[in-house]
Each structure stands twice: as C-alpha cells, then as structure tokens.
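$ fold --in a.seq
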Amino acid sequence: MIDWTPQPIAFSVGPLAVHWYGIMYAIGLALTYVVVEREARRRGLDVGLMVNGFIVIAFAALVGGRLYHVIDQWDARYRNDLLAIVLPPYSGLGVYGGIATGFIVGILYIRWTRQPILGWVDAAAPGLLVMQGVARWGNFFNQELYGPPTNLPWGIAIQCANRTPAWACPADGGTTPIDAHFVPLFLYESISGLVGAVVLILLARRVRSLRPGDLVLLFFAWYGTTRFLLEPLRTNNWLLGGVPTASIISAVAVVGALVVLAWRHRPGAAAGDAGSAAESGGASMRAGGPGSDEAVDDLPGSPAPAVPPAATLDGPP
C-alpha cells in the first residue's frame, strides 16, 4: 500500500506559501486551454477570442466551485469561521458549482461575441475532462477526497488530522486504526477524466454521425456516471434528504443527457438542424461565409449586397 503522505505546501516565498492544490489547478487550466484551443481550431472557430473568454469563464468557475464547497462544508467548517470562506488557503472547490457558473457565463460570453454555441461547448467538453484529470491531484496533496478503509494495493494513507469524523483515529475518539489505508477516490476521478477526454476527442474525429452539441451531452453523461458511482463512498458531504446532493445532480445530468441524445438521434430526425447550421457558421467565421459578419446582408429583409460582376472577379472573359 501507499504509506507516503504528501505535504500540501510545495514551497514558500517569504510569508507566501504556494500550495500543491493551486499548482495542480493551474496546470489543469493550462492544459485545458491547449485542448480547447486545438478543438476549436479544428472546428474553424475564432480562437482569437479565447484568451479573454477563458479568463472570464475560469474566474466564474472558481467562484461557483468555491460557493458549492462552502455550502457542502458549511456545518463542518464555515459556520463558525466565516473569514475562512475568503481567506487563504483555498483548499476546497466543488466541481458541479464550477460547471454551473462556468457554463452559464460561457454561454453568455459566446452569445455576446456572436459565436456558435454548440461548436464551442463541444470544443470545451474534452478540455473539462482534462481539467478534472489533472486538478484532482490537488486533492491528493491535501489528503482529501478519499473513500472508506481498504486493503487494496493502491490504498492511500491519511494522517489523523485530515480524516473525517467517520474514520477518525482512536486518539481523536474514533475506531479506525492509525495505519489504515483508504480508497483513493481522487485517483478514480482523475483516471476517469483523462480517459473520458481521450474518448471524446476520438469520437469527434471518427464518428460521422455525431451532431453539434453531442460531445457536451456525452461529457455530462460521462462525468455524471463517474460521480454518481463514487459519491456514496464519501462521508461528511452535502446531503438532501439523506442522499448526497452530488448524486442527485449526477443522476439528473446522466438521465437528461442520454434522453436528449436519444431524441436527437431518433429514427427520422432531420440531419440538418439548427445545430448543424451553428457548427457550419463557426467554420466559416473567418472565411466570410454564412455565419460571418460579411454574411449579415444575406438575412431576409436586408438590402441586396453590392456584389461585383463575375467578370470583375474572374478577370476578362
């Protein structure tokens, strides 16, 4: 088994302590940017808008993730220490909170920049899973996101100070042995995220029957299934009616995504829908085709564009 227990602080610069948690999230964000940019460029989207958009969306996701975590751990940690919500170290983020706020702000940003929504959310889907695969290692360095005691060869050691009340050490009033090892839930989520990212990228390149918007639906189905299976193994989490809140959200996400996917690919469904038009609009954004600013004159009710004669374009006959 894995007996090494990591330290949360990577290094210090004077009074400033740099935590591994933040480092892993920074690496995850950087790799996510690379993946999303690559996928967006392959779809012909305007990647020049990514820098500002990525900053805004990442900030919104961090705020939402923090808010979800605070609600999750309100009784255990924040009820009697409100300053801990805003003061460092920031060692808690809830994935579903980050997805919710990041997704909403992302949609608003895409609409504001007049970009094709379905094309961009599909490009972002594998990037979100890469983020999950990398950033979860921040939980490892914080000795959090683990399951019950286990005898599995990859069980990890957790120091007594970092254990939840359900698995407290004898010195802290619990019954779990000091040398116990625990299920590494962070590792399972990390592997699932990286594998899922590869699967989505391969599907985008090899499955011709996919329609714009399918990849993001597959993302919700993939991550929702992973979280639904792992959440019951956690303790001290946010409950609704005795059921983990994340399990409820996961079930809704999985069922909803699969239902929408089935409806979009039902027998007799039209091949060219509004989603396909949105995708093609992104591909022609820089070429002046349908979906670009130059194509606005083609809308019904617009004055006829001044197009030069063919002889002017092609040269003398």
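$ fold --in b.seq
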Amino acid sequence: MSSYLIRGLVADGGVRVVAADTTDLVRDAVERHGATRTAGAALGRSLTAGLLLAHVLLKDHRDRVTVRVRGDGPLGGVIADAGLDGSVRGYVQHAEADMPLREDGKIDVGGGIGQGEMLVVRSHAPYGDPYSSTIDLVTGEIAEDVATFLARSEQIASAVLLGVYFGPDGRVAHAGGVILQALPDANDAALAVLEANVKEFGGLTSAMQRAPLRQLVEEELAWGLGFENLTPEPLPVRFECRCSDEKALDALAYFSPEERRSMIEQDGGAEVVCHWCGEKRWIGPELIESLERDEIRCPDCGTLWHREGQARMVREGKLCACGRPMELPN
C-alpha cells in the first residue's frame, strides 16, 4: 500500500490517535532533493509531523499547517507544509549536509539541526490571518520538539513517534509517525497502560519492519485499551508541490529587466528550480520578454511596483526605496 494516514480513538474516547505510514512519500522527497541520510531523516520526520499536525490542529480543508525548524547545525533548517487533503511538501536548507552516526548507531538528526527553534504556523486562507507558535528546540530530533509544542501551545499531553529508516541500498525503507493525545475525559489508569505500551513499543521504524503500521497501532500501542478506527478507508498521503509554470515566471519578475535580458543573451532563457520539490522548469525568451510588458517599475531606481493581473503589491503614494512617490494605473 502507498503512504496512508489513519485516525482513531483509544480507551473509550479518552485518547486520540493519528498515525501515518509515509514511506513512499518520504522516499520521493529524499530522492527529489538528493538529500543525505541525515538531511533525509530530518526532512522525512518533518514531513510526517506536518501531516499528523494537520489532523490535530486544522478544521477546514482549505487550511494548511507549516512546520519550520531552524537551527545552528549544518542542516540549517527544514520546513514542511501540509493540509487535510493528504498533501505535503518540504525541503532541507542544506540537503547535502551529513553527520556521523550517533554512538547508538542511529542517525544524528539533533546534531544536524543543532540549537534553535520550531515555528508552527496555521494558515486559514482565505478567511483569516495565520496563527503561529514558536518554541525553543528541546533536542532537534523533531518528535520530542513536536510533543513539547503540543504541551506548551495546545496544553495537550502527547506522545509523538517519528522515524525514517534507510535500507542497505541507501534508500528510504520505512518512514512514519504516530501522535497519541490525552483528551479531557482520559482516565489515569488508561493513561498508565498507554505509557507502558509506548515504552514497550520501542523505535517506530524498527517496529514497522515487523508489521504494518495499522496493525502496530491496534495491537501494540493500543493494547488493552481498545481501538476505534475512525478511518475505515485510510487517507492516502503524498508529496505534492503547488509549483507551476506561472509561478516560475512570477519568480523571474523580481529580476531587473537588465538581468532578464542577460539570461536570454547568455543562456537562451532561464531554468527555474522550485526549492519545495526540486522541479526544474525552462522559461523561454518569449515568456521572459512578456514580463516587461506587464509590469510597472520605478522610473528612478527600477524597483518593481506592480504586475498586471497580480494583486496590488504597493500602495498608491507610498514612497519607493529611492524616495519617489509610487504611482499606479487606475
């Protein structure tokens, strides 16, 4: 089965469970970005965390949640953007960076990230302003940091399991995540059993090598507590970007006309690479030249003020960086 997500309730509705097998989509993302094992593990955990948090924090299918981890380690940072529709995208700032394995033989994601912060943004477009929360990183291993975010920002005690395992061939063999959350009507005895189950469970990707994730959730993590499956048909999840030829052309609008003419003269066009998914798009001379016909720039310094067909980028009468009052067509 391709990557999927399931939701359920444990202990007579006292505990919420969201779990996802993200093996295929994480493998796709790692290969798209040419990420090392350390960078790939950080990216995979973040992508999975984004999908899980979407089903914990969001209510409307138009909403998105963005998880941004920024640290002082060699990876620089990692970002993931996910929605309730099962789509997620993301990238690592330095996908080429790698770290030696830890003493216990595991990938050192925490060392690759270093010290820093985690920012979680809920976007409620088009009907509301984004809501963001920031915490200092606890370990940089992502799972512990997500659990800390949920405890501090949402006041919900949660157990978070995330993992990415690379096979002998260097490709992602298993990836996934689970969030278990105590709801207000959870009783102490059930939580004690759940805590014991999680401790006995061990590493997520090690467990995924012996059984499907759905079976692990029902028979091991929820052992003795009962599991009510809220998704009889698992939700497919996938790595999916929202880039397009139009957005690639929009990106070139921020280069000056002189720079764009140079692209045409020297290279015969421009290659635009999406940082979210690594997709490469070739923009030919005719399309590049069309930008100049549709834009309004400052007559003095050349700053882009407005593009035809786009939302107003500046306000009439506001001063440009060079000090000239901006003038836009009616």
